[in-house]
Amino acid sequence: MTRSTRARKPLDSAPVQTGRKAGAAGMAKLTIRIPNVSWREGRPRFNPGPKLRKLGYKGEDLRHASGAWFTPQEAAEWAQARADEVAGRRKAKAETGRLPARRRPLHQSIEGLFEEWFASPKFNGGVSEGRRQQKGASAATVADYRSKVRTLARHDPELLASPPPAITPAIAQGLFDDLWQARGLHTARGIVAVASSCWKWAKARGRGGIVINPWLELEKPLPPPRLVTWEDYEIHAVAGAADLLGRPEIGDAIFLGLFTGQRQGDRLLFERVGRDDENRLVFRQGKTGAIVAIPAAPQLTLRMEAAERRRFAMPIGGRPDKNEAQEAADARARRLVIVDETARRPFLRDWYKHVFADIRRAAARGIVENEDGTLRVGPERPNGGENWRQKPCPSVATKRDQDLRDTAVTWLGRAGCTVPEIASITGHSYVSIHQVLRHYLATHPEMADDAIRKLMAWMDKKGMAV
User: Fold this and answer.
1) 185 located within any domain
2) What is the rounded CA–CA span in Å between residue 259 and residue 237?
3) Which pLDDT does position 23 carry in this prediction?
4) What is the model's pTM?
5) For a pLDDT cut of 90, what percent of the chain falls above it?
6) For 27, 312, 401, 462, which has the most beta carbons within 10 A of its beta carbon?
7) Apex 58 CA angle, 52 and 62, nearest 5
8) H-run or E-run covering 21
9) Is 30 inside a domain boundary?
């Protein structure tokens, strides 16, 4: 498109043919007008007027990095975002008397924006400069964020090749809806949360030409809460299977979850400290350094003492020519409460999930003792002739390690603990505890029985008769 051709086009808006409509005089064009956007054979171009040019804006084709031209809807949304940017700059000038500089795009693609974000201190150990002491994200968080970006790339490869300003709120909503349909609500919400975090970082630092965060305020429903608890026989079934199959550390993790109510990730990073003056078991969270003191329940104490004897009886690492860093890693492994005792090293979270799933499957199907004394997982369909070392417990097949946290709240509630007492152990918010207890009140009628007994005792004490 030549300069002279552009000059003859109106600068404020241009008609876009989107269809035809029948009328009395025949067929008529149905057009829309987009401010400062002109069209030629389906190719939109931003043509700023003299006032916008004085603000530093230049003409540009509206197309994706892949080469595809914007649709009328995309062009309209892009133009609206540009208008919002202009209005914001003009407002700032009216308030301060100074026109803020434009935030020039520094990235050609969303993929490049994500990579610069991942190269920031947050994902590389944090910052320790002068008085600025900022911790970085954990390795598990970094891996989780990168995994979500890879999922987004597989879902829509062309999206990551687009420039960041091309993402409008409507496009972001459409992408969320597509992800929800294709990959589920949890995944869709997780990906959008990561993208929103990246856009927030970029906008605050003038990266990527980003003026608005299109991922905010999307219509994204909350998933229904998963509130599932274990029963006592299920705890013993899975912990028993772990002990029989030579993975007692999985049983330790289960009892630790039941009696502390701590999250799986925190339990896998717990370091053993010892006991305090009140004989409580004391742990240090490896991620935050926070101290967690738990009254020593007999069942948990027995497991922790047995685990400590095993830990110090086995060599950690297994490397005869260890350097200083490896020695430090081995020393930390000895301090951890839960360790992969087969590999003799700290658990990677994904590997813990894999081992836990194997043990859970064995508990669900039962464990059979062979003629030579070895053990194996029971068959899917027992024939009645099995020599069971541990009988099947099918109900554990759907249980998750994460359910132990809600189980701790529920069992403490059933035992008559108050909400503050429960929170002091598990670290839940009061709102979360009320939500869990309200859900399970109907499924455990003995709680209602206890409540009525307390009511009757109180009435008798007051001499009340009904």
Assistant:
1) yes
2) 17
3) 47
4) 0.60
5) 32
6) 401
7) 110
8) strand 15-23
9) yes
> 249's torsion region: left (phi>0), alpha (psi -120 to 50) or beta?
alpha
What is the residue range of 178's domain? 110-204
State whether 151 and 19 are in the same domain. no
Alpha-carbon distance values, 309 to 145, 160, 302, 312, 403 (Å): 37, 52, 11, 6, 28
Between 316 and 257, residue with greater pLDDT? 257
Q: State CA 344 to chain mean position distance.
A: 29
For residues 363 and 385, membership in a common domain is answered with yes
Q: What average pLDDT does this structure show over 13-38? A: 58
CA angle 312, 314, 315 (to 5 degrees): 105
What is the length of the chain?
466
- Is residue 183 located within the same domain as residue 290? no
Contacts of the segment 31-36: beta carbons below 8 A, 24+ positions apart: 32/72, 32/76, 34/72, 34/75, 34/76, 34/79, 35/79, 35/83, 36/11, 36/12, 36/79, 36/82
In this prediction, residues 239-263 reach a mean pLDDT of: 94
What is the percent of the chain with per-residue pLDDT over 70, rounded to a whole number?
Answer: 82
Quick check: 444 pLDDT over 50?
yes
CA distances from 170 to 81, 82, 94, 121, 159 (A): 11, 15, 30, 31, 14
Q: Could you tell me the sign of the dihedral formed by the alpha carbons of 368, 374, 375, 376, in that order?
A: negative
Same-domain check for residues 380 and 250: yes
Domain assignment present for 426: no
Tell me the C-alpha distance between 343 and 111, whole Å: 37
Distances (CA, A) of 261 to 80, 131, 254: 49, 35, 10
